[in-house]
Amino acid sequence: MVVSILFIYVVYRLFSYRRQFPPGPNPLPVIGNVHQIPTLRPEETYQSWQKKYGDIIYVRIFGSSMLILNTFQAAQELLEERGALYSDRPRFVLFNELMGWHNASTHVQYGPRFRQHRRFIHQTFNEQAARSLRPIQEKETSTLMTGLRESPEQYSQHIRRFAAATIIKVTYGKDVTSVDDPFVLLAERAGSLTVQSGTPAATLVDFFPILKYLPEWAPMAGFKRNARVVKQAVDDMMNVPFERVKEQMKAGTAPNCLTSRLLESFGESITFGDEEDIKGVAGSMYAAAEDTTTCVLLSFILAMVLHPQSFENAQEEMDRVIQDDKLPTLEDRRRLPYLECVLKEVIRWNPPVPLGIPHRLMHDDMYDGYHIPKGATILANIYAMLQDCSDPKTFRPERYLELDKTLDPQKVVFGFGRRRCPGRYFADTGIWLVVASLVASTNITKARDEQGREIIPNVEFDTGFVRHPKSFPCSITPRSSETRNLIDK
């Protein structure tokens, strides 16, 4: 056995010398770098490796290759300019085969089905079509502000309701009035269980697929037992709202929404595969939009609690630009440049998806003199890219008003190439409406304890696909009786 392992290692090293891979931490025989891949906040570890190994880092996990891109330039050159080569997705064993996510548009392999899914989404979420969805977002923003006025201590629940309500209305035509709505609970259960099951790029079975054949009672087969629970939650999230729309269509009461329009476009010729594609598109947009929007808005509130001067500056600008008898609208956006800088800095400070969604190389490639093998998983370290600026640990929105080379977070936060988030216009609009309304009509400050002392919240984030701020105390109050009346109006 030992001789066999040594033989494999020698062959691997000889092959490595013949093909010069990018630099990275030294691998061990057989297992590669699996012992060096962090399970908590991997984006920070990969950023620290950049100082030692450079902008692109190569690691091996058993027989699989992974390339980490720590700079915008590398991501742009590979994922954008060579998008035809890098638009595939890794074939996640745990998520695809055990959980049944193979139909979600974010996990469809690059090809005809992928292009069909993108076409479905583009019809509803392209820049022009997204404008027609603004009334939904404006209505839900008003509902959010009313909720914050009535029960500000439940700010996180109100934020989650807003994020869920907007995308559920668009995808399934259903009005969401409470965080206890069944659709919202389905999404939260599926999301939390998915995060607990582990990040796909760090899941052992994804790099050692033979483990999927282990019986469930085996010592290393806990992932299979967990996956069955997660699969049921994901199936419910995908199926329950989809079947509701189908029933409404049969009864002639279906609302105009993404799911109903797609089902109608196929008519009686629709197949089981077509329905699965539609279900996957709607479900993936529903899950992704709710999670990331919640993350950005909670990050904004936390940042304003910790950096009151930035919030006061945004309010001063708002007061100069917006009349007393109205709240800001999207038509006012171009006249509020400092508020735009604050939003950019929030995203830079805590990018919602720090490692993006992994890409997969479809054919061997060369970059900067290094060989990148076919099938390699490509991670764009968005977190590291947005930390590449002057004084990166300081929250300073003014950096975007200065003539420096600070990277605009909007260029990276939605991903790269042909896998870039198709709902970015819709998401950006909804987030801006809420942020602008909060600045115009509320005061966001530190909470106080029983002795009246300010509580400084800890800056902590969950690890996983989405980098959510951990729960923190704060105070959200109306700025004045006039703004309270504007919200009521």
From TrEMBL:
Record's keyword terms, sorted: Glycoprotein, Heme, Iron, Membrane, Metal-binding, Monooxygenase, Oxidoreductase, Transmembrane, Transmembrane helix
Domain of life: Eukaryota
Binding locations of heme: C421
Gene Ontology MF terms in the entry: heme binding; iron ion binding; monooxygenase activity; oxidoreductase activity, acting on paired donors, with incorporation or reduction of molecular oxygen
Family: Belongs to the cytochrome P450 family.
Name of the protein described by the UniProt record: Cytochrome P450
Necessary cofactors: heme
Pathway membership, UniProt: Secondary metabolite biosynthesis
